[in-house]
Specification:
With 492 residues, this protein is an alpha+beta fold. The protein folds into 2 domains: 102 residues, no CATH class; 275 residues, tRNA-splicing ligase RtcB, CATH 3.90.1860. The chain has 15 helices and 20 strands. It has an 8-stranded mixed sheet with strand order 1-2-3-4-5-6-14-13, sandwiched between helices.
Length: 492
């Protein structure tokens, strides 16, 4: 080890373990930067800096390390790529009393996340009927830019969504109470205050509960191709060739509006509290300030909104399976649900002491190891399921959290493959018809509400998800449990 890459006169990246690199503090950095990656990961980040790209993940890791109250390190998972302020795949934990909360560490799609549901069906049972099932899912689950659903809410009901999360959807008959046990935070995070959310944001949610949205959001029917850890797979109820369903979406227009609204609030707070800002979206406020508490309360509302949305989509998915295949809704059970654009109050050990922190995970997910009380009782001995989505034409993974993750990354891990091309670049390079035809040759049925959306999300626009998962596995942050392949993909 000890391999050093000199990037600029001050900035260098040092390899400290086979899959761990660090940026030693310089300038105003309060902690090191830490990157989980192989040499190719780091060389790609370095190349962006040397090419003079102002929007690059390596400098964003440095910028986050300069924020007040940050603990241990500014972290980047193996799927790291540039975001707004924080890199996507970035994690920053801040002392509750001395640290800040930043809009960039959450982003605009608050609590975008994944729910995976399991069935007793096998691939052989689905194959002859997958076209019918794809059509049923396409017609039943609203998707696409600006899509609206069958659930119509008034202002009072929107406030209830923001307070109660998935519980609201269950009370309205969407899904089952037992689903809640297998959702992060049991589908309802405390500390949400609808009064912290603007009327404009609430109005954007009147018709969007139970809708998939657009962009990289999807609903996939998948099958278990490979089991890596049979004991953990047994705990999760997984078996070879099993049919699973994964739903990837977030808080829709409401979450985006919260981000837009608080960009201005936190910009003013940064000036008020004399916090230097190195990129526009890194605006922040002390956590325990009026602005910080208000933003955290609004983020919690966005988190609950996303929980309610995925719960409603899960119900619609069960309905489509019943209509197409005659499967009883009760036979489709929630394996787990996690978010990956959040700021959460958590307790972690830092320098031998248990500290109250606000952990920002931007395009990163919780990966709590064995024994944490937040993990459902059925999974507590093996650690939390970690759900990592790939692309339409590759694969996804179910992983589990580890003790090392708790020690090094505040129980955090990667959330997906990570983009290599922007959406604009992908649309120039790929044509939707070619993408759909290529996937059909692999036996994957795609139903899309937007042709441009298919081109933006072409498999070639992303890193190899198997490579990024292998990095995190070899680093000991997560362990592989199962690899999933897509059969059906519904896109916005």
């Amino acid at each position: 080890m000890g391999k050093t890459i000199q990037v600029t006169d001050e900035l260098r990246v040092v390899q400290v373990e086979p899959y761990i690199w660090e940026i030693p503090p310089y300038g105003e950095m309060r902690v090191p930067g830490r990157i989980y990656g192989d040499r190719a990961t780091v060389e790609h980040l370095v190349a962006d800096v040397k090419a003079g790209k102002s929007w690059n993940a390596l400098l964003q890791i440095v910028n986050v390390a300069c924020l007040p109250g940050i603990q241990k390190a500014s972290l980047a998972m193996a799927d790291v790529h540039p975001g707004y302020g924080f890199p996507i795949g970035g994690v920053g934990a801040f002392d509750f009393d001395e640290g800040v909360i930043s809009m960039a560490g959450v982003g605009y799609d608050i609590n975008c996340g994944v729910r995976t549901m399991s069935t007793n069906l096998t691939r052989d049972e689905i194959e002859p009927k997958k076209e019918d099932l794809a059509n049923a899912l396409y017609c039943t689950v609203p998707a696409g830019l600006g899509s609206t659903g069958a659930i119509r809410l008034n202002l009072k009901e929107v406030d209830k969504v923001l307070e109660k999360g998935a519980e609201f959807s269950v009370e309205r008959g969407y899904g089952f109470p037992e689903d809640l046990e297998y959702i992060e935070e049991r589908g309802r995070i405390a500390g949400a205050d609808p009064g912290a959310v603007s009327m404009k944001a609430k109005k954007r949610q009147f018709k969007q509960i139970g809708t998939l949205g657009s962009g990289n959001h999807y609903l996939e029917v998948q099958w278990v191709e490979k089991i890596y850890a049979p004991d953990v797979a047994d705990a999760y109820g997984l078996f070879p060739n099993q049919i699973l369903i994964s739903i990837h979406c977030g808080s829709r227009g409401l979450g985006h509006q919260i981000g837009t609204d608080y960009l201005k609030v936190l910009e003013a707070a940064s000036r008020k509290y004399n916090i230097p800002i190195r990129e526009r979206e890194l605006v922040c406020a002390p956590i325990d300030s009026p602005e910080g508490r208000q933003y955290l309360a609004a983020v919690n509302c966005g988190i609950n909104c996303a929980f309610a949305n995925r719960q409603a989509i899960a119900h619609l998915t069960r309905q489509a399976f019943h209509d197409a295949l005659g499967v009883r809704p009760q036979e489709i059970v929630t394996l787990y649900e996690i978010g990956h654009n959040t700021a959460k109050v958590e307790e972690h050990e830092v320098d031998g002491q248990i500290k109250k922190l606000v952990v920002h995970r931007k395009g990163a997910t919780r990966a709590f190891g064995p024994g944490r009380k937040e993990v459902p009782a059925a999974y507590r001995e093996v650690g939390q399921p970690v759900l990592v989505g790939g692309t339409m034409g590759t694969c996804s993974f179910i992983l589990h959290g580890t003790k090392r993750a708790m020690e090094e990354t505040f129980g955090s891990a990667l959330h997906g493959a990570g983009r290599t091309l922007s959406r604009r670049q992908a649309k120039k390079r790929f044509w939707s018809g070619d993408v759909i035809a290529a996937l059909a040759e692999q036996g994957i049925v795609v139903r899309a509400h937007s042709k441009s959306g298919v081109a933006e999300e072409a498999p070639g626009a992303y890193k190899d998800v198997e490579e990024v998962v292998e990095i995190m596995h070899n680093a000991g942050i997560i362990r592989k449990v199962a690899r999933l392949r897509p059969l059906i993909c519904i896109k916005g």
